[in-house]
Design brief:
The chain is of the alpha+beta class and about 80 residues long. The protein has one domain. It has 2 helices and 3 strands; from the N terminus they run E-E-H-E-H. Strands 2-1-3 form a 3-stranded antiparallel beta sheet. A hairpin with a 5-residue loop joins strand 1 and strand 2. The longest helix is centred in the C-terminal third of the chain and has 18 residues. Pfam families: GIY-YIG. Belongs to the UPF0213 family. This is UPF0213 protein DVU_3309.
Length: about 80
């Protein structure tokens, strides 16, 4: 089922965090309440910078991994 998206949020310290979800508003609320990813805890509130089109879960996870690989190469 194509209801997954890859999203990019900017944390208060200016860093970016990439994630995958099937409910973006719920996920952003979790990040902003300190219950999201470990990386965003203590760096909230976060602000949505970008999101992908809807896709299958496996497509979304593949895209998220590609984003992390690209980030590592830039370092």
């Amino acid at each position: 089922m194509k209801n997954w998206i890859v999203y990019l949020v900017r944390c208060t310290d200016g860093t970016l965090c990439c994630g995958v979800t099937n409910d973006l508003s719920k996920r952003i609320k979790a990040h902003n309440s300190g219950k999201g990813a470990v990386y965003t805890r203590g760096r909230f509130p976060v602000h949505l910078e970008a999101k992908s089109r809807t896709m299958t879960r496996s497509e979304a996870l593949r895209l998220e991994i590609l984003k992390w690989i690209t980030k590592e190469k830039l370092l």
